[in-house]
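Quick one:
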Amino acid sequence: MIGRSPWSLLLFVFQQPLSSVALTHTRATPKLSGSINAVKERWPIFSDGAAPATSRLQQLRPGATPWESDYIYQAQLQSQTRKAEASEEDNYAMVVAISLAAECVGPLALAGALAVIGTFTLTGEPSLASFLANPTISQLVGGAWVASEAIFYLCCIATATFYTASAGHAPGARGDATEWDAEGRAEVWRRIVKDPSIDVKELLEGWMYRTDVKQASSFDLLTEWAAARLGLPAAGADARPSREAVAAAGVAYSELSVGDVCAWLVGCMFASSREALSPEQDAELQRMVRELEVAAGSPLAGSSLLEGAPSASFATTPGIDSMCAQTGAVQWRARPLAYYAVSHGVGEQVYTQHTMVHEHGFERRREGELNYWYRPAKAGAVAGDALVFVHGIGLGPAPYASFLDQCADDSTPLIALDIDAFSQRIFAAAPPTPDRFATLLDAALTRHGVQRAVMAGHSLGSTYVAQFARRDRARGDARRVVGVVLLDPVACLLHQAKTTSEFVFNSLYNLEDATMDYIFKKELWSAIMVSRHLAWHEGSWWLDECTKQVPTLVAVGAKDMIVAPERVRTAFGSWQARLRGVRLQYMPCGHGSWLADPELNAELVGSVRALRRDVATRRR
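Output:
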C-alpha cells in the first residue's frame, strides 16, 4: 500500500536527489496530476494504483474480453484509472497539507513566544517569579521548543532579508581577480544573441511576464481539492488561467520598450540598477540593446531614445516585468527545525554516511571548505582516469552512489563532491567562488595523485563542472580534465529563461506543483544558492568551448521541465557539435528520472563508460 500512503512520498523524497524527484518531474495536467502512466514515470513508488488495476483487467482477457462488448471493458478500465488518479491526487493533497502546517510552525511559535512575553510583562514580576519557581516538565519542554522555533524562524527571516538586500553572484558583485569586465560581458552577450537554438525575440519574451496574472497558492489548490471532494464549488478556480493559457498570453516582443529591456539586462549583466551605473556602464548597456535589436531584425518601442540619454530615464511598460533571480527577492518558504532534523540530521548523518561508507566504500575527506567523498582504485589495480562527480540539488551525493559505482571499474578512483549549500542542510555555508572552487578541487586531485579525470555533473552540479573545466583548459598541456559528462545539464543554455522560470519564479497549477515547490524549490539555503551564489556566466557551458580532444557527453530527458530539452538537442546534437566531440543522449524521461529507471540508468552508465574508454586510449 505504499503508493496510497502520503507518508511514503515524504520518505521517498528523502531518498532521492532533487533532480530525480522534484525539480525534474514531468508536468501534470491541471485537473489532476496527469495520466497514471505519467505519474508512474515521475514517481516509481506509485505502484498500486491504475497500472496494477489496468494489468488486472488486461489479464482477464488473454484472447477475448470477459464482457460481451469491448465498450464495457474500456469503461471498466477507465473507471479504474480515474480512481487511481484520484487516489494519487489525495496523496499530493496530504503532503501539501503537511507542508502548509510545517510552514506555519515558525510564525505560530513566534506569536506564542510574544504572547507569553507580553503576558508576563503585563502581569508583572511576581507572576514570572512564580512561574520560574515551580515549572513543570511539560512547561519547560514546551517553552524550550516554542522559543527555539521562534528564534530559528527569526534567523531564517534575517538570512533571507540579508541576501535579498545584497547583489547576486554576478558582474559587479565580487571585485576580485575574476571580476566580469566589459570585454567578458561583450563576449557572453555575443554568444547569447547568436544562440542558434532559439530566436532572439523568443529568448527575450521568455524572460518577461505580465504582473496582472493571478497566481494560485498551495492553500488555494488545497481548498479547491477539498471543495471538489465535498462536491462544493471552488471559489476562484475559474479566475486563474491554466498553464497553457498563461503560455499563450505571454509578452510579445512588439510590446516591449527599450526601458523594459534595459531594466532586465542591468540586473542580469551588472547585478545593479540603471540609476547606479557609471556613464561607461550605461553606454555598454545601451550598446547591448542595440545589438539585440539588430539580431531581432526590428526595433523596440522607444528605440530612438538610444541616442545619448541615460537608460534610467527610459520608461518601462505598465503591467510587464522581467525575471532576474540575482537581484530579485530570495524566494523561500519557512520550515521548522524538525524538517532539518530529518533532511540534515537523518539525511546527512545517517543516510549519507551509511550509503557512502558502508554500502560503497567511500571515505569522507575535506580540502579547505570543500567536502568530498573519496574511493581509490581497488587494491592491485593500476589506477586509471579518475571520475569526479558533482551532485544536484537534493540530499548530496548519496542518491548517486550506485550510479557512480556502475560507471567506474576496479581501476577508477572516485571523487564525489558534497556541497552543503544545495543539500538541504541547516545554516549551510556559502559555496566557494568559481576560482576558489577550482583551486580547492585541484588541490584535492593533487593530494590523491590524480593526473587525469573525467568531470561529471548532474543538474546544478553541471555548472560546477563548467567552471572547473574552463579553468583547467587554460592550463594547456598540464590540464587534468580529459572528458566532460553533463547530465540533465542546467549549464547548457542557462542564459535562456527556462530554468529560472521553473525553479525561482515558478507558478503553481496543481497539487503536484505545490508539493515540489515546498519540498525542494523554496528551501531557504538552496534558494539562496541559486539566486545569490550561482555565477550563471561562469557556470554556462557553450558549444564553442567543446573540443574533440576533451569529448563531452550531454544527456537530457525529452520530458525535462527544468532545462529545455528540444533546444539542448538543437544546440548540442547538431553536426557542428559532433565535430566538436559532443555526444548527445536524448532520453524518454523527465529531469533525473533515469535514476529510478533501471533501463535508462543502464543506458546512461553505458554511455559514460564508453566515453571513459575512449579518453583512456587517447593521448593529449
